[in-house]
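Researcher: Structure prediction, please.
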Amino acid sequence: MNHKAKLTLVGAGPGDPELITLKGINALRSADVILYDALINPVLLEHAPQAIKIFVGKRKGFHRYTQDEINQKIVENAYEHGHVVRLNGGDPFVFGRGSEDIDYVENYGLHTDIVPGISSSIAVPSSIGIPLTQRGVSESFWVITGCTSNRELSLDVRLAAQSSATVVILMGMNKLSQI
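Model: Predicted structure follows.
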């Protein structure tokens, strides 16, 4: 067993390469292998010239690898090379598969670390001056997926529409007419 074998989940942020955390950059610098998503800014990979880089991105209608295959690649590369970074767009726990990655690799005895990322649900409105909460206007906010894993409109959209909260809907373009 490789004694360096471990997984670090890193949230790459919403696409602007300056919005990754310093802890995320440090994880990239120490990585032996990086498995990265389609939504990351490729400039971030320059922080890890030493690492093997494997694209595992998923886009609508195109999945290079299934989630099970990605998890297997994490374990195989950790045992063979050491420190694997799974670089996700946004935050790995906001409509990502971070918990699935962690659960899988821990079954193989791998140590895991998590580096949160800035989610587009917060970064995009903020970057154009839209407050998610504002005294006297909105006391809370909802972040909802527009499309569930079953390709259905999330039932939470209807609930959120009844609220006075700010509503942020991610992954909703295909359901825009229903929303």
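Model: Strands lie at 6-11, 33-36, 52-55, 58-59, 62-63, 83-88, 111-115, 141-145, 166-170.
Researcher: Thanks, that helps.
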